[in-house]
Design a protein that fits this description.
Distance between the termini: 11 Å
Helix content: 25-40%
CATH architecture of the largest domain: 3-Layer(aba) Sandwich
Strand content: 15-25%
Oligomer: single chain
Low-confidence stretches: none
Number of strands: 13
Structural class: alpha/beta
Number of helices: 11
CATH class of the largest domain: Alpha Beta
Order of helices and strands: EHEHEHEHEHHEHEEEHEHEHEEH
Length: 330
């Protein structure tokens, strides 16, 4: 159960700091039933959040980090909701110290991210973007794409084995490939066709490495010059998780040297630097998409529904389904 319960007969403020939704009328109507009103902050920074939400009971964020300073300056705050699967925007230990509950939205887009990962993987293996550009420019000689490799019989490594990675593993079941995974938080040694291994063995044995780890202090630049040197010569990387998991400079060096054959990236650290002059944009063995792996109209619909249901549960003092810090209840 949530430890928070209203004892006052007045409307409670919910700040949606930075909504990307065009229409939240259903969400707003649902919250009126629990004596809450949604205020749209159009915030850009944590300071903006403080300015708009100092009296908020609940703050929802999509892109703005919420930290100790925010929690100190928002004394009415009882719930922080990050409308993402990842939780790296929220200083969870600080929230816990302030008795603030933290929830995320873990289920709404894992299918899409898994589908996008497999799509990137197959596009990379078959060099589909390169072929498309070549034909559109007037070429029609298949030798331009040589060499191509058969996917069947390859080893695919999954770095992290949560909902998304497990969905990827299921989708790969029909390709007759070996699936390995590393995740220190998963105790099982086999899940479906996927076999658990160490990080070192995963890197050494994967022809294709798909990254699905959360971003934490420990996983920041987990893929760096040292770990890249452990990988099979000619291996390839797919990242649809967080850009900061990969040291971009080390990745580019590995691609230029041929240590890695290719990379497909839906995310990159410092994505604002991407453009025609960025070295990655000039590499024909790199596929780039604009952090769109999660995107579908179905994901949007479920995202709003899951958000609504969790916030309503909070105000009704019901158990929260995606509570990240139950110790804050103590």
């Amino acid at each position: 159960m949530s430890k928070w319960r209203s004892t006052h007969m007045h409307t409670h403020k919910v700040l949606y700091a930075d909504s990307s939704f065009d229409d939240l009328s259903d969400f707003e109507r649902s919250l009126t039933s629990v004596d809450a009103i949604v205020v749209h902050g159009n915030c850009k920074t944590p300071e903006d959040v403080i300015g708009s939400g100092s009296d908020a009971v609940c703050i929802i964020t999509e892109l703005i980090p919420l930290n100790e300073m925010v929690f100190q300056k928002c004394p009415s705050l009882k719930l922080v909701y990050t409308n993402n699967v990842g939780t790296d925007l929220i200083d969870i230990p600080a929230a816990t110290r302030h008795g603030i509950l933290v929830c995320n939205n873990p289920d709404y887009n894992f299918r899409e991210v898994a589908e996008h990962t497999v799509a990137l993987l197959l596009s990379l293996i078959r060099k589909i973007p390169k072929a498309n550009g070549y034909v559109r420019s007037g070429g029609y000689d298949y030798n331009y794409l040589s060499p191509l490799k058969r996917f069947e019989g390859s080893s695919v490594g999954l770095l992290g084995f949560g909902r998304i990675a497990q969905s990827v593993a299921k989708k790969l079941a029909g390709f007759d490939v070996r699936v390995l995974f590393y995740d220190p938080y998963v105790k099982e040694t086999h899940i479906g066709q996927a076999k658990k291994t160490s990080l070192e063995m995963l890197l050494q044995n994967s022809d294709y490495l798909c990254i699905h780890a959360p971003l934490t202090e420990k996983t920041h630049h987990l893929i760096n010059a040292e770990t890249l040197n452990l990988m099979k010569p000619g291996a390839a990387i797919v990242n649809a998780a967080r850009g900061e998991l990969i040291d971009t400079l080390a990745l580019m060096d590995a691609l230029k040297s041929g240590r890695l054959s290719a990379a497909a990236l839906d995310v990159i650290e410092d994505h604002a630097s991407l453009g025609p002059e960025h070295p990655l944009c000039g590499m024909d063995n790199v596929i780039l998409t604009p952090h769109s792996a999660w995107l579908s109209k179905d994901a949007f619909k479920q995202c709003k529904a899951d958000l609504t249901n969790e916030i309503v549960r909070f105000f009704n003092n019901q158990p929260l389904k995606a509570l990240l810090n139950p110790e804050a209840l103590e």
